[in-house]
Amino acid sequence: MPQLAFANTFWESFDVLEKPIKAGVRKAMAKFQQLTIADLHADKGLHLESVNNARDPRMRTIRINDFWRGVVLAPDDGSDTFLLLNVVPHDRAYTWAAKRLYTVNTATRALEVRNVVALEQLTPTLEKAAAKAPALLFARHSDTVLRQLGIDDQVLRAVRTVIDKPQLEAFGMLLPEDQFEVLQYLAEGFSPDDVYRDLVAERRPAGATPEQPSGSLAAAIANTASRIMLVTRPDELAEILDKPFAAWRVFLHPSQRRLAYRVSYKGPAQVTGGPGTGKTVVALHRVKHLLSRSAVSRVLLTTYTNALAAALRENLALLLGDEKQMARVEVTTVNALANRTVRALAGRVPTPIGDADERQVWRRVCRRLTLPWTEQFLVQEYRHVILAHDVRSREEYREVSRRGRGSALGPRQRDRVWDAVEMFSAELAAAGTITHLQVCARAAQLLGEADLGVHGFDHLVVDEAQDLHPAQWRVLRAAVVPGPDDLFITGDPHQRIYDSRVSLGVLGISVTGRSSRLRINYRSTEEILVWSTAVLVGSRIDDLAGEGEDSLTGYRSLLHGKRPHAKGYATSQAEVAGLVARVREWLAQDVQPNEIAVCARFNTTLGSVRDELSAAGIPSVWVRDHPGTEVDGVRLATMHAMKGLEFRCVAVVGATARAVPFAKEITPPEVDLLQHESDVLRERCLLFVASTRAREALWVSWSGAPSPFLDFAAGSPPR
Ligand SMILES: Nc1ncnc2c1ncn2[C@@H]1O[C@H](COP(=O)(O)OP(=O)(O)OP(=O)(O)O)[C@@H](O)[C@H]1O
């Protein structure tokens, strides 16, 4: 019986097919599985036929219906795995198939595809242009070095014509996948040794040597798990074709697979990476791995907001497909975990209050004690010094380091601050309320003395880690016994939007030697990435562990599309009208309303957007109301609520000088210079987060003066 495998190109075509054609594919594939290879070749219904003038002699088409053909790579070496490559309308199937050639990469041993015809046609012309070019992109790498990294003769000839990165990117669609990736890394400045270690050695099967012959098609398919899915059981086919396909569940990039499925880490491990690099995907696969290692272990998967926790729960259920395993995972926010813990271990929990209510209490305290500071100063002192260092007494506060605060406080002043802290706590206690971070501090204390067999977990997986406060980290540290695989942490310091400053090492979470970075963005086009990254140019970003600086070096996307649009209007009415016109265009291009998001710094801006959309007959819904995917309507969200989400099209509106940064959230430099800088950076990161939610199209607009973070887009060079 033949074996079946599906290439990633197949899923891209299959996903958008109409139902009857999908049913035709299912039927054809089921038949494929039942026939012997000899019967398969003879079957009139499937009509497996070779492709005239195909550059790859193994190319075949099969009949799905009168109009549609499947394109298949058939083994000619005695092996029995057939690879389904694409489903295309009849006449296009032959041209698609004729130009493509599948080969085995000499270094990674994976199956790759190239557009061999286009490469042959383009290379001679480019060679002429390259002869006159002042410099070539890969001049410093010898042929030998490139060959060791898997570059073959045809690609090498093409590589020698490449002048710059844009030309390499333009070539990308035509080149074999692993070879293209090697070239991209070299173009980013990584050394051949780094590329060999991170890409080639990662993928090459154990024991393969450069001299070894390439092996069968079946062996190459087995070596290409990041792009090809092999059907291993007869009943698996229906399951695979019936579930909505999500590439992330199956085709992990080797760099993702290596991190998620590493058998064990000796202690806390950390994965960072820019937006859309699949950190959440890796976190979900790590949970799957941890659950599969023991039948009884309990895992906590945690993230920042309830909305994100709900999305994680849904995706994890899809990935696991096993209710018993799912029952061993708790998916929740750290605040909810802290709350539950305090309730379980100490009985009642006072009612937690939000940031706005907390500020009001501080304002009253400031007034009553006639303090020389603003309530904002006290909120920050309480958050960044007292709660961050878990200071519990006046004496401790007198001694504690205030590193990171830009204003000095003498002993007398510290005493006055502590008076305020006592009054603040007393006010909350009298009202039966508490702040979320106070609940966390209490939960961490209680867990420290609790039986972790009952109240703790065997493994913790933490997503969106960049925004956790030290008090929240203490809860996590206390909820798991220190040791192998205790904490698996994913996050991106460039997306820090809640002003948390953390030194993980000090909190007993050392990730030294167990820290990795993801670099390929799977969400957005390169054009959106380059644009969004310009928002952060020149900013110093502290790394996740609080031990140094983080950077986005090598961060890139394999996808391409239109450049983002940034536009200023004279009035806010004109801006909203411009937005409505843009949303209309997206809808006319067959984007569904729920694939479009409009976000702004403030809810009020979104209120007028909602009115205008509604006047134009376009439905809209608030993201904060957690509409399910089945709910129609353009999504509306504040920039903060966009964290962790993604949409085909995103419009960021109201990006004015007054709103981004929002002056009220910025400490004046004369009050505290360090806090001022950190506030400005936080607002900058917020714009970065909002714009990196877009997959295909990004539209940014303002009325009057644009945000200073948009200098680069609004006419002046980036600052
Ligand atoms: N190996 C993969 N194959 C296909 N798609 C992938 C892969 N890994 C991630 N993706 C997709 O890329 C998008 C971004 O992934 P994910 O949300 O995990 O990134 P992230 O790094 O957590 O992003 P952010 O930090 O911006 O929230 C998602 O649509 C995800 O399904």
Can you tag this structure with a few keywords?
six-stranded mixed sheet; YaeB-like fold; alpha/beta; isomerase; 719 residues; binds adenosine-5'-triphosphate; 5 domains; globular
Structural notes for this entry:
The protein is an alpha/beta fold and 719 residues long. The protein has five domains: 125 residues, YaeB-like fold; 107 residues, no CATH class; 156 residues, Rossmann fold (3-Layer(aba) Sandwich), CATH 3.40.50.300; 81 residues; 149 residues, 3-Layer(aba) Sandwich (Rossmann fold). The protein has 29 helices and 26 strands. The strands form seven sheets. It has a six-stranded mixed β-sheet with strand order 2-3-4-5-1-8. It has a six-stranded parallel β-sheet with strand order 11-10-14-15-9-16. A hairpin with a 7-residue loop joins strand 4 and strand 5. Adenosine-5'-triphosphate binds next to helix 13 and helix 15. It is an enzyme of class 5 (isomerase). Its EC number is 5.6.2.4. Keywords: ATP-binding, Helicase, Hydrolase, Isomerase, Nucleotide-binding.
Topology, pairings included?
Elements: E1 3-7, H1 8-15, H2 19-34, H3 37-42, E2 49-50, E3 59-63, E4 68-73, E5 81-89, H4 90-99, E6 100-104, E7 111-115, H5 116-132, H6 143-148, H7 153-159, H8 165-172, H9 177-187, H10 192-203, H11 217-222, E8 228-230, H12 236-242, H13 247-250, H14 254-260, E9 269-273, H15 279-293, E10 299-303, H16 306-320, H17 323-326, E11 329-333, H18 334-346, E12 351-353, H19 355-368, H20 375-387, H21 394-399, H22 411-431, E13 433-435, H23 436-449, H24 452-455, E14 459-462, H25 470-478, E15 487-491, E16 515-518, E17 520-521, H26 526-535, E18 541-542, E19 549-550, E20 556-557, E21 565-569, H27 572-588, E22 596-600, H28 603-615, E23 620-622, E24 634-638, E25 647-652, H29 673-691, E26 694-703
Bound molecules: adenosine-5'-triphosphate.
